[in-house]
Each structure stands twice: as structure tokens, then as C-alpha cells.
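User: C-alpha cells for this complex, please. No commentary.
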Amino acid sequence: MGKIYLYNTLKRKISPFAPLEKKSVKMYACGPTVYNFAHIGNLRTYIFEDILKRTLLYNGLRVLHVMNITDVGHLTSDSDFGEDKMQKAARRESQPATAETVMQIAQKYTAAFLKDIANLNIITPDKLTKATDHIVEMIELNQIIQKNGYAYETSSALYFDTRKLKEYGELARVNFDAMQKTARAETDPEKKNQSDFALWFKTVGKHENHVLRWDSPWGTGFPGWHIECSAMSIKHLGKRFDIHCGGIDHIPVHHTNERAQNIAAMGGPVVNFWCHGEFLVIGKSEKMAKSGENFITLNTLIKKGFNPLSYRYMALLTHYRKPLQFTWEGLEASQNASNNFYDQFLSLEGDGGINKNYQQKFLKAVNDDLNIPRALALAWDLLKDKKINSGDKKATILKFDEVFGLKLSETRKIEIPKEIMELAAKRDFLRQEKKWDDADDLRKQVEERGFKIKDTDSGFEVTKE
Ligand code: AMP
Ligand code: ZN
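Assistant:
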């Protein structure tokens, strides 16, 4: 194990990281709100978290990784405005919003999410915790916050009183007064401060028709989004844990509010390191958003004949704290580069040992706030290094792949032409649409050209017959 350095958003600097408990890291990542497919921007964040976890494992640490699945309480605005995203999705998919249809939506998109992360070779979190399974814990935590004097009840909600907590805004580095100035389209006149947020919504007024609802000391209702993550992380990782991560959009509201709840309930900070991944952007700076028109899913890439791992490769090329600019040309270039990487790896022969010099440099790069672009460049240097024998190169690169996660050990020599991948992807899509005859036609076309399609849990595989 080397010395690990990570950027802690709270401190706004890179600091040495050591687990709170010897050799065992407890890590929480904000997971998807399962009202739609994840887009490749969301997936970039999950790749960053996977790289972080793989780096910790590479250093010989154990990692307990918990991720939530939000299936209630996340409103269309992170700051408590609008409607529950799940309920809106049930209507979007032309169903009346009932508890049953909302849960069906949750199941559908949770399954799609799991398929996406499998396709990207992201190690499945040790625990995937559903918000609706933790209502009791959320109510209990809200009660503690209220008992400790940080909450007040109105006719529509139980609110967190942000003025009561001097640390509020520390994570976002914004002072309390500045936080009150943000223009809000919708506001509750009973709120004491603009930045106060709901710990519990009552099913009255605008939330009268909310379908998922539970009894609570504040009346029938449903939890706020932020309390979900505090309750689930504390339940599964304890009152003090190592790392909390997510995308940068979570810094000003979601994580700021989570941190406030944690301090109010536990009397001090719960999280040691806050780590955030930068956005994937389209063009120069346009953020990819689930509600936007520029929404690209992993399935779209697969349907266009791209190997999902070439998207992973693309993500590895940009440091996680820099915006990743997505273009189709860039993806094409990454696919070519990763194919080249696989080819070079496959041309290595013989057995060998790990090269100490490269191994040390690699460890230094990944431990330097996850400098994966440098680690990847090092892998290329090693491939080209004439002084190292083929067997040693192979063993060393395979070891590096424990962090890259490019599935080098499963790579076979046969190249599947892009047209064949496109046909297979189209067939998979037709199957999902239940157009069985058309799907069969495409299977035949693939087979006539000497390839075979095998359906797997995470999608499909094409092999040479
Ligand atoms: P959501 O399902 O919307 O709650 O988001 C899931 C994760 O994706 C969160 O960690 C977000 O911070 C992150 N995220 C959202 N949009 C982007 C983006 N354009 N690029 C990278 N990460 C994002
Ligand atoms: Zn969260």
C-alpha cells in the first residue's frame, strides 16, 4: 500500500487519505433516482466512484460500498419544488400514478441501471439500499434532529432550520445570507429561511395526491430527499464513515443539507472525505441532464455499435475533477484507441512477473488523487518499452487493469466488425420491443456472416462461430 491522496471538497484541497478504521474503508455514493434511464453523464460519475473504489482495493484496503436507490421523495427541483420525480414518470409512461405503477417504474429503471453498470464493468456496490425500505430510520433521524432543536413544523412540512446550524454552507462555501438570496420560483410562506429544506412532507396542499405515503409523528406524508441519504448512510456505515461521493451538482444543495442533518443529529460531522466528480458536458459546456434534450444513454451508444467499455476508456482519459467533453468523434477515437490497447495486450505472450518500476509509478499516479490519465499513459509506455519482456508486460498490465476495469483478462483475439455489433445491438433493441420476428431476421444475418449472439444478464455477447 502506498500513501493515498484525495481531493476533499470540504477542505478544497488534496489531503492524505487513511481509513478511519484500519484497512477498511466505508464509502457511500448517491445512487440514481430511478425515474428514467441513467444518461452517460450519470454513468461518468459512477465510473469515477468505481475507479476510486478500485484504487482503494488496489492498495490492499477492504471497501464497504453502499449506494442508495431513490424511489421516493426526490422532487423535480433538488430544492423541494415541484412534484415527485417518480410520480411524474408514472404519468409520463401513460399510467395513472398509483403506488403500484410508481413501484413498477422504480423496478424497471433499477434493472436498467444495474444492466448499465454491468456493461461498464463497474463493481456492483456491496449494498444497494432502497429509500422506501428505510422510512422508519428516516423518521427516527428526523425525530432526533427535531429533539435537538434544528427542526420546526409547519402546516405542510417538517423543515430543517438552517439558521440554527453555524456549519451550514461550509461544504458549498457560501454564507448564510448569500444562500437566502437565490431567486425561488415557488416558496412556502411558512418557511423561516429560503435555504430551509423539508425533512418530511405532509400529504396536504400541493402534495395531497402523493401516492406513496406513510404515517409519522408529523402526520401522513413522505420523506425529503436529503434525509434519505443521511439515514441510509448512517444505518449501513455508522455514525462516522470515510467517504461520501457524488457528482458536483450535489455540493450546493443535497450534500450541504445531508451534512447539516448529520451534524444536527449526531453532534458532529459523520463524513471524513467528501469527493465529487465533474460533469460530462456536450459541446463546450452544456450539462447533460435527464430532463434535457441532449440526453444520451449507454443503450444509444450500444445501438450505434460502440462497445460500452470504449465509453469507460473515454472516461478514463479525463481526470475526474475536469469536465469530460463528449462528442461522437471523441468516442470513435476512444473506441479506436481502446481497440488498439486490447490488440497490443493480446499480442503479448508468455508468463512473467510484475515490473516493480512500472508498478511503483502506477501506484503513485493512481494514489495522486486518482490520476488515471497518467496511469493509462504509463500503461502505453510500458507496452512500447523495448527493455521489458512480453510476459512481464502482460502480468503488469493485467495488474493495472484491476484499477482500469477494462476486462483485459476476458479479451479474446477475435475482432467483431462494427457492422456485426450494430446488427446485434439492433436485434437486442427489437427484442426489448418484443418484435421477435424482426429480431430473428437479424440474428440470421449475423449467423450467416459467421458470428453468434449470446444473450446475457447484462445484454448480449457476440462471438465468432
Ligand atoms: P440522479 O440520478 O439525477 O440523482 O444523478 C445520479 C448521479 O449522477 C449523481 O451523482 C449526479 O451528481 C450525477 N450527475 C448528474 N448529471 C451529471 C452529468 N451531466 N455528468 C456527470 N454526473 C452527473
Ligand atoms: Zn444522496
